[in-house]
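[Discussion] Sanity-checking designs against the backbone

I'm trying to build intuition for which residues belong where. Below is a C-alpha coordinate string of 353 positions. I'd appreciate it if someone posts a full sequence so I can compare it with mine line by line.
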Protein backbone atom coordinates (compact mmCIF):
# COMPACT_ATOMS: atom_id res chain seq x y z
CA UNK A 1 0.00 0.00 0.00
CA UNK A 2 1.45 3.39 -0.99
CA UNK A 3 2.33 5.70 1.91
CA UNK A 4 0.08 8.74 2.13
CA UNK A 5 1.90 11.91 1.06
CA UNK A 6 2.26 14.72 3.60
CA UNK A 7 0.36 17.79 2.37
CA UNK A 8 2.46 20.80 1.42
CA UNK A 9 2.05 24.49 0.66
CA UNK A 10 0.87 23.75 -2.90
CA UNK A 11 -1.96 21.63 -1.55
CA UNK A 12 -3.05 24.38 0.85
CA UNK A 13 -2.87 27.00 -1.90
CA UNK A 14 -4.92 24.85 -4.30
CA UNK A 15 -7.59 24.14 -1.68
CA UNK A 16 -7.84 27.82 -0.71
CA UNK A 17 -7.80 29.10 -4.30
CA UNK A 18 -4.73 31.32 -3.80
CA UNK A 19 -1.06 31.26 -4.80
CA UNK A 20 1.69 29.44 -2.88
CA UNK A 21 3.36 32.81 -2.25
CA UNK A 22 0.19 34.13 -0.60
CA UNK A 23 0.05 31.16 1.79
CA UNK A 24 3.74 31.43 2.59
CA UNK A 25 3.61 35.17 3.32
CA UNK A 26 0.54 34.82 5.49
CA UNK A 27 2.24 32.11 7.56
CA UNK A 28 5.41 34.14 8.12
CA UNK A 29 3.44 37.27 9.01
CA UNK A 30 4.61 39.43 6.11
CA UNK A 31 1.23 39.85 4.40
CA UNK A 32 -2.12 41.22 5.59
CA UNK A 33 -5.04 39.55 3.85
CA UNK A 34 -8.81 40.19 3.71
CA UNK A 35 -10.59 38.29 6.44
CA UNK A 36 -12.38 35.94 4.02
CA UNK A 37 -9.16 35.03 2.19
CA UNK A 38 -7.36 34.42 5.46
CA UNK A 39 -10.24 32.23 6.67
CA UNK A 40 -10.13 30.13 3.46
CA UNK A 41 -6.42 29.48 3.98
CA UNK A 42 -6.89 28.59 7.64
CA UNK A 43 -9.75 26.22 6.74
CA UNK A 44 -7.57 24.56 4.11
CA UNK A 45 -4.73 24.13 6.62
CA UNK A 46 -7.09 22.57 9.14
CA UNK A 47 -8.80 20.21 6.69
CA UNK A 48 -5.50 19.03 5.21
CA UNK A 49 -3.83 18.86 8.65
CA UNK A 50 -0.91 20.81 7.19
CA UNK A 51 2.07 21.25 9.54
CA UNK A 52 4.31 24.22 8.61
CA UNK A 53 8.04 23.47 8.49
CA UNK A 54 9.53 25.62 11.27
CA UNK A 55 12.97 25.65 9.62
CA UNK A 56 11.53 26.83 6.33
CA UNK A 57 9.51 29.50 8.12
CA UNK A 58 12.63 30.81 9.86
CA UNK A 59 14.49 30.96 6.55
CA UNK A 60 11.63 32.80 4.89
CA UNK A 61 11.81 35.43 7.64
CA UNK A 62 15.59 35.64 7.28
CA UNK A 63 15.96 34.41 10.88
CA UNK A 64 17.29 31.28 12.53
CA UNK A 65 16.00 31.96 16.07
CA UNK A 66 19.53 31.02 17.12
CA UNK A 67 22.07 33.27 18.83
CA UNK A 68 25.79 32.66 18.53
CA UNK A 69 28.00 32.88 21.62
CA UNK A 70 31.73 33.17 20.97
CA UNK A 71 34.08 32.72 23.94
CA UNK A 72 37.82 32.04 24.23
CA UNK A 73 37.71 28.99 26.50
CA UNK A 74 34.78 27.03 27.94
CA UNK A 75 37.04 25.31 30.50
CA UNK A 76 37.68 28.64 32.22
CA UNK A 77 35.17 29.03 35.11
CA UNK A 78 34.56 32.69 34.20
CA UNK A 79 33.49 31.90 30.63
CA UNK A 80 31.64 28.74 31.66
CA UNK A 81 29.53 30.79 34.05
CA UNK A 82 28.82 33.36 31.35
CA UNK A 83 27.78 30.62 28.90
CA UNK A 84 25.31 29.23 31.45
CA UNK A 85 23.80 32.69 31.99
CA UNK A 86 23.35 33.34 28.25
CA UNK A 87 21.71 29.92 27.88
CA UNK A 88 19.28 30.72 30.71
CA UNK A 89 18.28 34.03 29.13
CA UNK A 90 17.90 32.41 25.71
CA UNK A 91 15.71 29.69 27.19
CA UNK A 92 13.45 32.30 28.79
CA UNK A 93 13.08 33.97 25.39
CA UNK A 94 12.47 30.80 23.38
CA UNK A 95 15.81 30.99 21.53
CA UNK A 96 18.59 28.52 20.86
CA UNK A 97 22.29 29.19 21.46
CA UNK A 98 25.17 27.95 19.33
CA UNK A 99 28.41 27.96 21.31
CA UNK A 100 31.78 28.53 19.68
CA UNK A 101 35.09 28.28 21.55
CA UNK A 102 37.92 30.13 19.78
CA UNK A 103 40.90 29.07 21.90
CA UNK A 104 41.57 32.82 21.79
CA UNK A 105 42.78 32.53 18.19
CA UNK A 106 42.00 35.29 15.71
CA UNK A 107 41.42 32.92 12.80
CA UNK A 108 38.67 31.06 14.63
CA UNK A 109 37.12 34.35 15.77
CA UNK A 110 36.97 35.59 12.18
CA UNK A 111 35.36 32.35 11.01
CA UNK A 112 32.65 32.56 13.66
CA UNK A 113 31.93 36.22 12.97
CA UNK A 114 31.15 35.29 9.37
CA UNK A 115 28.30 33.05 10.55
CA UNK A 116 25.97 36.05 10.59
CA UNK A 117 26.62 36.75 6.91
CA UNK A 118 25.38 33.27 6.04
CA UNK A 119 22.27 33.53 8.27
CA UNK A 120 23.42 30.68 10.50
CA UNK A 121 22.74 32.84 13.56
CA UNK A 122 20.69 35.99 14.11
CA UNK A 123 23.44 37.74 16.06
CA UNK A 124 26.53 37.16 18.17
CA UNK A 125 27.56 37.73 21.75
CA UNK A 126 31.30 38.04 21.17
CA UNK A 127 34.04 37.67 23.79
CA UNK A 128 37.72 37.97 22.97
CA UNK A 129 40.65 37.88 25.37
CA UNK A 130 43.48 39.45 23.40
CA UNK A 131 44.24 42.82 21.75
CA UNK A 132 42.93 43.46 18.22
CA UNK A 133 45.04 44.88 15.38
CA UNK A 134 41.91 46.20 13.67
CA UNK A 135 40.93 43.07 11.71
CA UNK A 136 38.23 41.95 14.14
CA UNK A 137 36.80 45.46 14.40
CA UNK A 138 36.55 45.79 10.61
CA UNK A 139 34.71 42.48 10.32
CA UNK A 140 32.37 43.30 13.22
CA UNK A 141 31.51 46.67 11.67
CA UNK A 142 30.81 45.04 8.32
CA UNK A 143 28.79 42.19 9.78
CA UNK A 144 26.75 44.01 12.41
CA UNK A 145 24.47 42.46 15.05
CA UNK A 146 27.37 41.79 17.42
CA UNK A 147 27.58 42.64 21.12
CA UNK A 148 31.18 42.91 22.38
CA UNK A 149 31.39 41.66 25.96
CA UNK A 150 34.01 41.62 28.74
CA UNK A 151 37.01 42.81 26.70
CA UNK A 152 37.08 45.63 24.18
CA UNK A 153 37.55 45.54 20.42
CA UNK A 154 38.42 49.26 20.31
CA UNK A 155 37.40 50.23 16.75
CA UNK A 156 34.20 48.18 16.66
CA UNK A 157 31.18 50.53 16.41
CA UNK A 158 28.71 48.22 18.16
CA UNK A 159 27.21 48.04 21.67
CA UNK A 160 29.72 46.94 24.31
CA UNK A 161 29.13 45.50 27.76
CA UNK A 162 31.87 45.45 30.41
CA UNK A 163 32.14 45.18 34.13
CA UNK A 164 33.27 48.45 35.72
CA UNK A 165 36.99 47.63 35.66
CA UNK A 166 38.06 51.02 37.01
CA UNK A 167 35.70 50.66 39.97
CA UNK A 168 37.14 47.21 40.66
CA UNK A 169 40.70 48.51 40.71
CA UNK A 170 39.65 51.44 42.87
CA UNK A 171 37.99 49.16 45.43
CA UNK A 172 41.14 47.03 45.59
CA UNK A 173 43.42 50.05 45.99
CA UNK A 174 41.28 51.62 48.68
CA UNK A 175 41.09 48.34 50.63
CA UNK A 176 44.86 47.86 50.52
CA UNK A 177 45.42 51.47 51.52
CA UNK A 178 43.15 51.05 54.55
CA UNK A 179 45.55 48.35 55.77
CA UNK A 180 48.59 50.59 55.21
CA UNK A 181 49.90 49.21 51.91
CA UNK A 182 51.48 51.82 49.69
CA UNK A 183 53.86 49.55 47.74
CA UNK A 184 51.77 47.23 45.59
CA UNK A 185 52.37 44.82 42.73
CA UNK A 186 49.73 44.82 39.98
CA UNK A 187 49.59 41.71 37.79
CA UNK A 188 47.35 42.09 34.73
CA UNK A 189 46.79 40.95 31.17
CA UNK A 190 48.32 42.50 28.05
CA UNK A 191 48.89 46.26 28.39
CA UNK A 192 46.68 47.08 25.39
CA UNK A 193 43.60 45.48 26.91
CA UNK A 194 40.92 47.65 28.46
CA UNK A 195 40.67 45.48 31.57
CA UNK A 196 44.40 45.82 32.26
CA UNK A 197 44.41 49.59 31.80
CA UNK A 198 41.28 50.40 33.77
CA UNK A 199 41.98 48.07 36.69
CA UNK A 200 45.47 49.51 37.02
CA UNK A 201 44.21 53.10 36.87
CA UNK A 202 41.56 52.35 39.47
CA UNK A 203 44.14 50.74 41.77
CA UNK A 204 46.40 53.78 41.51
CA UNK A 205 43.52 56.15 42.25
CA UNK A 206 42.46 54.12 45.29
CA UNK A 207 45.97 54.24 46.75
CA UNK A 208 46.40 57.95 45.97
CA UNK A 209 43.25 58.88 47.85
CA UNK A 210 45.03 57.90 51.06
CA UNK A 211 48.73 58.39 50.35
CA UNK A 212 48.85 60.97 47.55
CA UNK A 213 51.89 60.42 45.35
CA UNK A 214 53.79 58.61 48.12
CA UNK A 215 53.06 55.23 46.54
CA UNK A 216 54.81 52.81 44.23
CA UNK A 217 53.02 50.36 41.96
CA UNK A 218 55.05 47.76 40.16
CA UNK A 219 53.26 46.39 37.09
CA UNK A 220 53.62 42.97 35.50
CA UNK A 221 51.78 42.19 32.25
CA UNK A 222 50.97 38.72 30.98
CA UNK A 223 47.87 36.62 30.39
CA UNK A 224 44.82 35.75 32.49
CA UNK A 225 46.05 32.22 33.17
CA UNK A 226 47.30 30.10 36.06
CA UNK A 227 50.58 29.60 34.21
CA UNK A 228 51.09 33.34 33.96
CA UNK A 229 50.41 33.64 37.69
CA UNK A 230 53.12 31.10 38.44
CA UNK A 231 55.63 32.92 36.22
CA UNK A 232 54.82 36.30 37.76
CA UNK A 233 55.20 34.92 41.29
CA UNK A 234 58.65 33.56 40.45
CA UNK A 235 59.64 36.92 38.98
CA UNK A 236 58.34 38.72 42.07
CA UNK A 237 60.37 36.46 44.36
CA UNK A 238 63.49 36.73 42.20
CA UNK A 239 63.23 40.53 42.45
CA UNK A 240 63.22 40.34 46.25
CA UNK A 241 59.46 40.82 46.82
CA UNK A 242 59.48 44.60 46.11
CA UNK A 243 55.92 45.13 47.42
CA UNK A 244 53.88 44.34 50.52
CA UNK A 245 50.69 43.45 48.64
CA UNK A 246 49.59 42.06 45.28
CA UNK A 247 46.52 42.87 43.20
CA UNK A 248 46.11 39.88 40.87
CA UNK A 249 43.58 40.87 38.24
CA UNK A 250 41.99 37.46 37.63
CA UNK A 251 41.20 34.32 39.62
CA UNK A 252 43.60 32.32 37.47
CA UNK A 253 46.53 34.69 38.03
CA UNK A 254 45.87 34.71 41.77
CA UNK A 255 45.70 30.90 41.94
CA UNK A 256 48.98 30.51 40.06
CA UNK A 257 50.76 33.07 42.23
CA UNK A 258 49.52 31.57 45.49
CA UNK A 259 50.74 28.13 44.40
CA UNK A 260 54.33 29.37 43.97
CA UNK A 261 54.29 31.62 47.02
CA UNK A 262 53.29 28.71 49.21
CA UNK A 263 56.00 26.52 47.71
CA UNK A 264 58.51 29.18 48.75
CA UNK A 265 57.14 29.43 52.28
CA UNK A 266 55.48 32.84 51.91
CA UNK A 267 52.53 33.10 54.31
CA UNK A 268 49.39 34.99 53.30
CA UNK A 269 48.57 37.52 54.71
CA UNK A 270 51.32 37.44 57.36
CA UNK A 271 54.17 37.95 54.87
CA UNK A 272 52.23 39.24 51.89
CA UNK A 273 48.68 40.44 51.25
CA UNK A 274 46.81 39.58 48.05
CA UNK A 275 43.53 40.54 46.34
CA UNK A 276 42.05 38.73 43.34
CA UNK A 277 39.57 39.70 40.63
CA UNK A 278 36.47 37.88 39.25
CA UNK A 279 35.57 35.71 42.28
CA UNK A 280 34.16 32.97 40.07
CA UNK A 281 36.45 30.22 41.38
CA UNK A 282 35.83 28.97 44.96
CA UNK A 283 38.20 31.48 46.52
CA UNK A 284 36.31 31.24 49.81
CA UNK A 285 37.70 27.71 50.23
CA UNK A 286 41.31 28.84 50.10
CA UNK A 287 43.43 28.98 53.26
CA UNK A 288 43.11 31.80 53.99
CA UNK A 289 39.95 32.69 52.02
CA UNK A 290 40.92 35.18 49.32
CA UNK A 291 39.59 38.73 49.24
CA UNK A 292 38.49 39.52 45.68
CA UNK A 293 36.69 41.92 43.40
CA UNK A 294 33.55 40.11 42.28
CA UNK A 295 32.24 40.45 38.75
CA UNK A 296 28.49 39.71 38.42
CA UNK A 297 29.21 37.28 35.59
CA UNK A 298 25.70 35.84 35.40
CA UNK A 299 24.21 39.33 35.21
CA UNK A 300 26.65 40.20 32.42
CA UNK A 301 25.75 37.06 30.46
CA UNK A 302 22.00 37.60 30.67
CA UNK A 303 22.30 41.30 29.94
CA UNK A 304 24.47 40.61 26.88
CA UNK A 305 21.71 38.59 25.23
CA UNK A 306 19.05 41.14 26.19
CA UNK A 307 21.16 43.93 24.70
CA UNK A 308 21.57 41.99 21.47
CA UNK A 309 17.80 41.59 21.14
CA UNK A 310 16.87 45.11 22.27
CA UNK A 311 19.28 47.04 20.03
CA UNK A 312 17.81 48.79 16.99
CA UNK A 313 20.36 47.70 14.43
CA UNK A 314 18.91 50.03 11.79
CA UNK A 315 20.03 53.15 13.69
CA UNK A 316 23.74 53.00 13.00
CA UNK A 317 24.47 56.33 14.68
CA UNK A 318 23.41 55.01 18.08
CA UNK A 319 25.12 51.62 17.97
CA UNK A 320 28.49 52.58 19.47
CA UNK A 321 27.53 52.49 23.14
CA UNK A 322 29.26 51.24 26.28
CA UNK A 323 27.41 49.86 29.28
CA UNK A 324 29.19 49.17 32.58
CA UNK A 325 28.02 46.67 35.18
CA UNK A 326 29.02 47.49 38.80
CA UNK A 327 31.36 45.22 40.73
CA UNK A 328 31.85 44.71 44.47
CA UNK A 329 34.64 43.75 46.84
CA UNK A 330 34.22 40.57 48.84
CA UNK A 331 36.38 40.94 51.94
CA UNK A 332 37.79 37.74 53.37
CA UNK A 333 41.14 37.10 55.10
CA UNK A 334 43.99 37.57 52.62
CA UNK A 335 44.81 41.19 53.44
CA UNK A 336 46.51 42.38 56.64
CA UNK A 337 48.79 45.27 57.61
CA UNK A 338 52.39 44.97 56.40
CA UNK A 339 54.42 42.77 58.74
CA UNK A 340 57.54 43.99 60.55
CA UNK A 341 59.67 42.39 57.86
CA UNK A 342 57.55 44.00 55.16
CA UNK A 343 57.76 47.40 56.85
CA UNK A 344 61.56 47.21 56.79
CA UNK A 345 61.43 46.25 53.13
CA UNK A 346 58.99 49.12 52.49
CA UNK A 347 61.30 51.58 54.26
CA UNK A 348 64.24 50.43 52.15
CA UNK A 349 62.10 50.84 49.04
CA UNK A 350 61.20 54.41 50.00
CA UNK A 351 64.86 55.25 50.64
CA UNK A 352 65.80 53.98 47.18
CA UNK A 353 63.05 56.04 45.53
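Best answer:
Here's mine. Compare freely.
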Amino acid sequence: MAQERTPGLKDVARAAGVSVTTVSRMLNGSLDLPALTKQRIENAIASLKYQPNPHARRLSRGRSDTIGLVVPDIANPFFATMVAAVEEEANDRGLAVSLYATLNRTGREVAYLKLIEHNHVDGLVFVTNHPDNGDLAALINRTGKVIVVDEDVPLAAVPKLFCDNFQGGHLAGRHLAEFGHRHVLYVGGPDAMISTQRRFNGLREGLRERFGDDISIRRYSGEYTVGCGRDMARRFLDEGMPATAIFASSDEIAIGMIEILRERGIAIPEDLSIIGFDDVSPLHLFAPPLTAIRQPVRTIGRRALSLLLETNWQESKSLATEELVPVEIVVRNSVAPPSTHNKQREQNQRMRT
